[in-house]
Design a protein that fits this description.
Elements: H1 4-23, E1 31-32, E2 35-44, H2 61-74, E3 79-83, H3 89-94, E4 100-101, E5 115-118, E6 122-129, E7 146-156, E8 163-172, H4 179-199, E9 204-210, H5 222-228, H6 234-239, E10 267-272, E11 277-286, E12 306-314, E13 324-325, E14 329-330, E15 337-340, H7 342-345, E16 354-361, E17 365-372, E18 377-381, E19 386-391, E20 398-408, E21 411-421, E22 426-430, E23 435-440, E24 445-454, E25 458-467
Parallel strand pairs: 1-7, 2-3, 8-9
Antiparallel strand pairs: 2-12, 3-5, 4-5, 6-7, 7-8, 9-10, 11-12, 13-25, 14-25, 15-24, 16-17, 16-19, 17-18, 20-21, 20-23, 21-22, 24-25
């Protein structure tokens, strides 16, 4: 085992590299389509040190992890969330070829054990520690357990003008069944729901991981709250005909079980659609029989991996209330807030039309805003800088934008914006840098709103498109 000081230096280097990659927010390896399918897998890989916890799994843990990483490739999963990925992380990744993988946060006791391996690019990755934990039934406070968050690019339109994102959450909730454990776990789910309400407004969401919860356990009310909040569970939909198990209706799974078993595990999947991307469940399965050791009998982990197949499509394609989003540009600001005008745009009667643009800027981009002809006003950022305005003509549309980013106080943010209308008129604010990108609305579409993160300035920005 490497010395902790060496490990920490490498961990910092990995995090720095990940931050640099995250600043390049254009998805470069996405499917060109306005609809498609993707598979997800959640697997607790039992990566606690063997001396601490054997997880009742035979064989050498390092060898088991190498085989798990190989099987991730073999079965072609698109996005995989793993939990308890602690001290054998290097072995897991050594045999895996997924092109987008999160850097480890460390082994026990430094890391959360949460990582993602994906065939789709992602941005805005972060780790969040639980506010509450309990050591009553197990050593849940030994490591910084919690959840991770990322925006995954599912695809782009044919012109690469629009990107279809969904917010993915991976979690490992508090274990145990004592009153203290149940209270901590309920608070874990509450914290997750609060984060979704703040940071995933207007976005499709997929949540999967080790909830340590069962519907049939009376005290596990948190996961029922997720259903009440509008999320859907593919296992409930497809294996139980939409009926949620009642408290006390115990039917816990063994390991492994048949792929189409109706029994319940603590590993779960939830999802919801948004005004930009619609999701639907196509299949749910327990994949434990795919993850057996060389003898074909022994399991590689004490958890049944759970798989779901989901479809996605441009929301509103059938109703005609279509909206699209550009790629995100810039970075995450310290203390920034998420905003998404698609939520309000979905409620606009008729097709939205821009009446006026208002930008604020000086040395950086302080604020962006616009007014729709229907009266809605969108404003984001702060009140600094100088305001520049442009009123659009009756037959004029905002069709193109340029953004430039830079670094301030160690954080990447937007420094400049320039709008171009269908009449060739322009409006600009802020200070141009050497790192710029142009965003053009798809043919027959125009820019009608914003998505991103702001504070006193505009840290991150994307554009919402609507048909003309």
């Amino acid at each position: 085992m490497k010395k902790p000081s060496t490990f920490r230096r490498k961990s910092r280097a990995i995090k720095a590299a990940a931050a640099a990659a995250a600043a390049l927010v254009f998805p470069t390896a996405c499917q060109a389509a306005t609809s498609g399918n993707f598979s997800i897998l959640s697997m607790n890989v039992a990566g606690l040190p063997a001396l601490v916890n054997g997880n009742d799994v035979p064989g050498d843990k390092a060898a088991n992890h190498r085989l798990i990483g190989q099987k991730f490739n073999e079965y072609g999963y698109d996005v995989i969330h793993v939990q308890e990925d602690f001290n054998y992380h290097a072995h897991l990744y050594s045999t895996n070829t997924h092109p987008h993988r999160t850097p480890t946060s460390g082994g026990v006791p430094l890391g959360s054990g949460l990582n993602t391996l994906s065939r789709h690019p992602y941005v805005d990755f972060r780790r969040v520690k639980w506010d509450k934990c309990s050591n009553q039934d197990s050593a849940d406070c030994l490591t910084p357990k919690g959840f991770t968050f990322m925006r995954v690019a599912l695809g782009t339109d044919a012109s690469s003008s629009a990107v279809y994102y969904a917010d993915f959450y991976n979690l490992h909730a508090d274990a145990g069944v004592t009153a203290a454990d149940l209270a901590a776990r309920q608070d874990n789910v509450r914290q997750l729901a609060d984060h979704m309400a703040r940071w995933s407004a207007g976005n499709a969401v997929v949540v999967f991981g080790d909830f340590n919860s069962r519907y049939s356990r009376g005290g596990d009310t948190g996961i029922r709250g997720l259903l009440a909040a509008g999320l859907r569970d593919p296992w409930v939909e497809l294996r139980r005909g939409g009926r949620v198990p009642a408290p006390g209706e115990e039917d816990a799974c063994g390991n492994p079980v048949a792929a189409d078993a109706r029994c319940e595990t603590v590993d779960k999947v939830f999802y919801r659609s948004g005004p930009l991307v619609r999701l639907a469940a196509r299949d749910f399965a327990y994949d434990g029989r795919r993850f057996l050791q060389a003898d074909g009998k022994s399991v590689l982990s004490d958890h049944n991996p759970v798989r779901a197949e989901l479809s996605w499509e441009e929301a509103g394609a059938q109703s005609g209330r279509r909206l699209r989003q550009s790629a995100l540009f810039g970075g995450e600001g310290e203390g920034a807030a998420w905003f998404n005008d698609a939520v309000a745009l979905e409620r606009v009667v008729g097709r939205p039309r821009v009446a006026a643009l208002r930008f604020r800027g000086g040395s950086r981009l302080d604020g962006v805003g616009l007014t729709l002809r229907s009266g809605e006003v969108f404003r984001h950022g702060g009140s600094g800088g100088t305001e520049a305005t442009l009123a659009l003509g009756e037959a004029e549309f905002w069709t193109e934008a340029e953004l430039c980013k830079g670094e301030r106080s160690g954080k990447v943010r937007n420094f400049y914006i320039r709008a171009v209308t269908s009449a060739g008129r322009t409006l600009a604010a802020g200070t141009r840098t050497s790192s710029c990108a142009t965003f053009r609305a798809p043919s027959g579409w125009h820019i009608v709103g914003f998505v991103g993160q702001d504070g006193d300035e505009v840290d991150q920005l994307a554009f919402v498109y609507a048909p003309m």
